[in-house]
Specification:
single chain; 440 residues; 60% helix; flat
Amino acid sequence: QQEWKETRKLIVQLKPMVRLEGPPNKFRRFLFNIANHPYFEWVTTSVIVANVLTMTLKTHDEHDCFTAGKVWVNISFTIIFILEAVIKIIALGPRWYVRDGWNVFDFAVAILSCVSVGFDVSSKAYTCDPALKAGVTTDNVPALQVLRAFRIARVFRLVRRARGLRNMIQTLIVSIPALGNIMGLIGIFTIIFAVLGNTLFFNVSFDQDFYGRMDGSANYQSFDNAIFLLLRQTTGEVWNNVMYYCSEPDPYRACGRTDPPYLGEGCGGPEIGPLFHLFWQLFGTYLMMQLFTAVIIENFDDVSKEDSSFMPVDRLNEFVDVWTELDPEANQRIPSSNLPLLIMKLKPPLGVNAPGNGRSNLLQVIKDLAIPIRGESVTYRDTFLACVKRVMAHDAEDDDDDDAPVQDKTIVGFNGQAVTIAEDFAARLVQRAYRDWREK
């Protein structure tokens, strides 16, 4: 029951899209076929991987000729990425090209790469000839190294091509609201402990030993320093030594200022020092920080369940893709006579597009579909829900369809009940058999 509810939510979110048809121009259609060919994607992915591998070859104080060779390799990769963008823009057109956010990202990376190559050319980094590089300096271009570092953004282009990486990114996006709440809670605890630390340990001496675990930047003397010191302790860095500094029983050794107004004030003590720091480790490190991991793991588990459930998301997306082929204008309805074609195009378990399946399997699937016919057509929502219900063996009577959009009136049969697609298909088969018999 719970799995059906989650699947039904996904069905509501998945909507048919307007199908992108190839352009009528022969040259653009040729580029369109290239851009949509599977090999085009594989070649692009291979180039990105090769580009990432060349980025790992940078070393300190490398030879100028080696640097020049890498510059020429980077120019070659940049030309390939520009050609990819140009092919897609010409094939799809600017309006359709920018509708995909990943295309926009790829184009931005390509433009930044061109700017970076321009700086490499102007600085003569493409050659190792000292005569050509004489008098050329890049010291007055502080943004050059930053632009070169932006080349690493090409790595993110692999995200759209790797399903596992997409799941991880989706997990992080889904976790953002919950992580924001946890960060707010951690911020409240950090402020509380920072105020307490600033009150209890503002006068702790830094010179209790020669190690200097507390100094001018790591102390509780001000609110901001206390915040940074507490955050540093959440990493486990020498927090116990800071606790020892704040637990010294001798006031003349524990206090930084020992004149009468300050002696014994804000110097900690053997009771309050361990209690404060142990509580901060308990709440700040072992409880609050672990909540980040728990939230991310929980959301990743939810994303993984969508792929490993009885009805994977890939199969639901396949239904949307096949429906888009039959409904290119995204009217969310197709003629009832096209439903058998839809079922034949879908792979199991939703359809029968698999080796060994034939007409008998198609008849069995349609027989089990209780899809009402609305104005000589079937709707996207009715068909999607009926196909998934058949696979999950779900009883339709316990559904709450109050949020369903208003549809055309269903066709009513002689018995006063709505005519389903199974009855319509059976009637068409009888009519076809009768016509064939009359023609003999």
